[in-house]
Design a protein that fits this description.
The complex is a heterodimer. Chain A is an alpha+beta fold. Chain A contains 6 helices and 11 strands. In chain A, strand 1 and strand 2 form a beta hairpin.
């Protein structure tokens, strides 16, 4: 088992992913991290089992099925032969885990990057509008501008590493920053850093130039 | 129904799934439907679907249960949990009109029947988790229901200080340890 991952998904995010209430952009990040992290995969299974326990409980949420409902369903079963028992092969050594490759392709070389200054490049993923997922390519040793958060920002490292006041984040690690966090992430000097960053509200930059600029890069 | 009868009832669903998978047993499916379809429909209504959409989706969920019965693994989830994940995905698809990115599947080695001891352990733990949730103070249980069956956003979940995560997580620690062990 490969688990050098030190920074994990928060309980709240795992629960939201299990309940199915997160925006699509966060779902991509959570599913990508879990593809790399057995601890969070096991945690997710336990959150799913909470959902199952509540679904299975005798509660006041039972609805009455329509008349003829069972007969209609039984009718449709004709069309479904018993399935085979194959399982999807694992592709765990890919740089881009499957939930992310569905959006950007199988390797990072095919990403359509756009320069946003200081050598930093980004690519915004096509998701629902309630949150934004972007790939960031930060040259080795480059610092991102100091910024705060109006909502939640989650950053998952795919390649290289970055450092800020909260620690050192390498492949598979996730940093979750809320409104009370201000940080200046710096890419590790040894390799360009590529990460998946998800936000549900614009970041807060200091300085008028960045404030104007951010409208153009939707960050 | 006594607690013991309830426990027997729940482990019954595993047998139902086996019968559905191995012999395409329609009688077993009809019983499973009788228990779970009204629950799935109720879940979807609580999540914001109107009655006719909830009916339609609940029917589709049950057809999926039939079609994907071979993917159910009683050493990894209870029947209720497995059906919950199918219903949740249907909810995201139908109500929120979004794709649901799923983690990569693990390779679990050559396909083989799960060990009976693992099945029993998982099903017993699911049972004790259900009991722990049923015994939570009403306010905590209501919050949990809102997080799963209402539509609390992640920031709203984070703001809920009364969510009994600690209580629940201590109950499922054993299940977690075992899952981790199984994945190594």
């Amino acid at each position: 088992m490969k688990n050098d991952i030190k920074h994990h998904i928060t309980d709240q995010m795992l629960m939201g992913y299990s309940a199915g209430t997160l925006p699509e952009a966060f779902n991509i990040l959570v599913a990508t991290h879990i593809s790399l992290c057995d601890d969070c995969r096991a945690q997710l299974a336990s959150y799913d089992s909470i959902g199952g326990a509540m679904l299975g409980a005798d509660n006041d949420a039972l609805a009455t099925m329509d008349t003829g409902s069972l007969a209609a369903v039984m009718e449709r079963l004709e069309d479904c032969p018993a399935g085979a028992t194959e399982r999807a092969p694992s592709a765990r050594n890919n740089t881009v885990p499957a939930p992310l490759s569905d959006y950007i392709g199988n390797d990072l070389s095919g990403v359509k990057w756009r320069n946003i200054g200081m050598g930093v490049r980004q690519a915004i993923l096509p998701t629902s509008a309630d949150a934004t997922a972007r790939l960031l390519h930060i040259p080795a040793g480059v610092a991102m501008p100091d910024h705060g958060h109006n909502g939640t920002e989650m950053t998952l490292v795919l390649q290289g590493a970055f450092q800020d006041d909260d620690g050192y984040f390498a492949r598979g690690d996730v940093e979750t920053a809320d409104a009370d966090v201000n940080h200046t992430p710096v890419a590790d000097i040894h390799e360009d850093c590529i990460c998946l960053a998800v936000t549900d509200a614009p970041l807060r930059f200091k300085g008028l130039f960045l404030k104007i600029f951010q409208r153009f890069i939707r960050i | 129904m006594s607690t013991r009868e309830k426990a027997e009832k729940r482990s019954l669903w595993v047998d139902h799934m086996v019968r559905i998978h191995t012999s395409r047993d329609r009688a077993a499916f009809a019983e499973l439907y009788g228990h779970f379809a009204p629950r799935v429909k109720g879940f979807l209504i609580k999540s914001g679907a109107d009655a006719s959409l909830a009916e339609e989706c609940a029917q589709e969920v049950m057809v999926t249960v039939w079609a994907k019965a071979h993917l159910f693994d009683a050493s990894r989830a209870s029947v209720a949990t497995w059906i919950f994940t199918i219903a949740r995905n249907r909810k995201i698809d139908a109500l929120r009109k979004q794709r649901r990115p799923e983690p990569e599947e693990l390779t679990w080695g050559p396909e083989e029947e799960p060990a009976q001891a693992d099945v029993i352990a998982l099903q017993q733990e699911s049972e004790s988790l259900a009991r722990a949730i049923a015994e939570l103070p009403a306010r905590q249980r209501a919050l949990l229901e809102k997080a799963y069956f209402g539509d609390l956003t992640h920031s709203e979940i984070a703001a809920q200080t009364g969510l009994p995560l600690g209580t629940i997580k201590s109950r499922i620690r054993l299940a977690l340890d075992r899952l981790r062990h199984a994945m190594k």
